[in-house]
Amino acid sequence: MNIVVLIFYYGKFPWYIDYFLHSCKFNSSIDFLIVTDNETVHKNLPRNVRFKKKSIAQIMERAIKKLGFAICINDSYKLCDFKPAYGFLFPELISGYDFWGHGDIDVIFGQIRNFITEEVLLNHDFISVRHDFLTGYFQLLKNNDKLNTLFMYSKDYKKVFTSAEHLCFDETNFAFEQFTNGVPLNEIQSEIESMTHVVKRLHDKKIINAYFDFHVIEGLPGRLKWHNGMLTYKNEFEVMLYHMILFKKVYNPKNSPKQIPDTFYISPTRIYS
């Protein structure tokens, strides 16, 4: 089954874009499409990575036309709330693919298909790479009408799209701890019904078949090794991806290497080869 991952990024690309792109190269069976307003043209892009120029104003225009009501995107961070709707809003970007996903660039991939196998894809409609809640930095949906409009199963999606506030709709509406601690779905306190609420509810009702497993590393664990596309922890556990949500705050090199090495290590404070 073929897969495309959509990434919408606005503003100057950070230092870690080169590591992200290099790790995409070693996942040649998956296409990555980066939608951006960035003027920077990356040379020697991997064959499976494409850039598409699109302004936030164009996104808003399309969203209003497709959704049928006024929406609010005051800054690029608000786009996170629209991630679940990308397949509905931009069907031309996912045409011909069996699955589409959304993601971020603050990740370094290992071998995605070692985890998201053909068997996993054949038997599931929705793929989460954590066991407890959805992650906006990587998730996959089957390319069909039901999944492309899955966001509409939230009773609050119009509230989310019309609010100027970022509501973490693509993940948990900031109820991460409650989901991790296994609080029953109907007891979780949140302002809006997030996509984690939606997917877990529909999975429980057997409306969709969702896949939940723990394939990622976050935080500052150190002891990570990336070698020719393979990401391992403590030289023992294979990892699908490392999410640099905290790492990028403690490590900020002035320049990336001119060429990303085929082997590098990630400590709690730096990347080195």
Summarize the structure.
This protein has 273 residues and is α/β, with parallel strands linked by helices.
Count helical runs: 10
Oligomer: single chain
* Terminal Cα span: 35 Å
Residue windows where pLDDT falls under 50 for at least 5 positions: none
Basic shape: globular
The percent range for helix content is: 10-25%
Number of strands: 15
Radius of gyration (CA) equals: 18 Å
- H/E element sequence: EHEEHHHEEHEEHHHHEEEEEEHEE
Tell me the fraction of residues in β-strands, as a range: 15-25%
Commentary on this structure:
This protein is of the alpha/beta class and 273 residues long. The protein is 23% helix and 22% strand. The protein contains 10 helices and 15 strands. A 7-stranded mixed beta sheet has the order 3-2-1-4-7-6-8. Helix 1 links the parallel strand 1 and strand 2. The chain is globular and about 50 Å long. The two termini are 35 Å apart. The mean pLDDT is 96.
Pick out its properties.
273 residues, alpha/beta, 7-stranded mixed beta sheet, 5-stranded antiparallel beta sheet, 15 strands, 23% helix, 22% strand, globular
List the helices and strands and how they pair.
Blueprint: E1 3-9, H1 17-25, E2 30-36, E3 49-53, H2 56-67, H3 86-89, H4 91-94, E4 99-103, E5 107-109, H5 118-122, E6 126-128, E7 138-142, H6 145-148, H7 157-162, H8 176-180, H9 195-204, E8 210-212, E9 216-217, E10 224-227, E11 230-233, E12 237-239, E13 241-243, H10 247-250, E14 263-266, E15 271-272
Parallel strand pairs: 1-2, 1-4, 2-3, 6-8, 9-13
Antiparallel strand pairs: 4-7, 5-13, 6-7, 10-11, 10-14, 11-12, 14-15
